[in-house]
Amino acid sequence: MKELNSLKKGPSALLIKHPLKVVARAEAIERPTRRQMEATRRFFDNCNVSLSRIVSEPEKIDGLSTLPEVAFMGRSNVGKSSLLNALLYPKSSSGSVTNKEFARVANHPGYTKTLNFFTCGRQVRVVDMPGYGFGSRTQQGELIKTYLQNQRTLKRAYVLASCKEGLTELDDMVLDMLEEYGVPWQLVYTKLDKLVTKPIDVSIPTAAAKNQKQSFLQKLSKKPPIPQHKVPKQQLSLQDTETINQKVQEGLDLVQQRGNAAVFEEVIGTSSTKMLTYLGIDELRASIFQACGLLCK
Predict the structure, then answer these.
(1) Residues 6+ away with beta carbon under 8 Å from 165
(2) Neighbouring C-beta atoms of residue 246, cutoff 10 Å
(3) Which one, of 158, 180, 116, lies nearest residue 270 by Cα?
(4) Which of 162, 171, 168, 167 is nearest to 195 (CA)?
(5) What is the mean pLDDT of the segment spanning 42-48?
(6) Alpha-carbon gap, residue 14 to 21, rounded angstroms
């Protein structure tokens, strides 16, 4: 599948040596425990995900869902589909893929024109909303507004913004609308990998090289030493690490300064590529469970 391949291509994962801060939250918000993070990860890695519903017309939104829902929204080409693929990519303990549906990743903005409902393990529903802005249509705007006004089981809207562009005037209009409708929302930065500018080249000895040791007789025979083969690797630099940490913290400062009553004062930075090992995805999964009241005690 094209969508599946989109998760696997790209540069190899960078080694991360310095502490990365992918979440910035207000002091009043509790951090999920390690046990809660593990439970959430197990759920998403093993649950069955199905595309349960597609809605293209505002009048077909009935608001009768019984499952708690979270919605993902953002400007066209913000990386929403790639993020959802990374989020809804369950694997079994053996690493085999159990997911059957993926959000379509397109090369042009505005591809998603419908409300796509993904049901995860019969416990939570993730809604892929049409992008707004370039490439969008008036009907898509009506679809978004009608859903936000009528869906009583919507627990939180995740507003996506590119880490390089941040929130725009168009995003501000959407945030005002969320506040007007009383919909709790949370800021999620996408494409943290775009902040990586100067990876450091390092080399790691292979496992075989580490295990090769010369015996006493080999040393006496004065044979040449066994070559130590190394695998070329790249490491995230301290400068890029600090840039990422600062960007996430700035996001929290920004939403707190807005004073929006509907905001959940926690910002998550994410990367939907293996270069940064899908950074922030586990934290986003835990956030979804927290919003839906599904975190274990």
Answers:
(1) none
(2) 13
(3) 158
(4) 162
(5) 91
(6) 16
What does the pLDDT read at residue 294?
Answer: 96
Task: List Cβ neighbours of 194 (8 Å cut-off, separation of 6 or more).
Answer: 162, 163, 164
Q: Is residue 217 part of a domain?
A: no
Q: Please indicate, yes or no, if residue 126 is contained in any of the structural domains.
A: yes
Q: Is the pLDDT of residue 92 over 50?
A: no
Query: Does residue 77 belong to any structural domain of this protein?
Result: yes
Closest residue by Cα to residue 148 from 132, 162, 161: 132
The answer, as to whether pTM is greater than 0.85, is no
- Here the CATH number for the domain that contains residue 70 is 3.40.50.300
Instruction: Encode burial over 13-42: b for 16+ CB neighbours within 10 A, e otherwise.
Output: ebeeeeebebbbeeeeeeebeeebbebbee
Total domains present in the chain: 1
pLDDT at 19 over 80: yes
Q: Does a structural domain hold residue 170?
A: yes
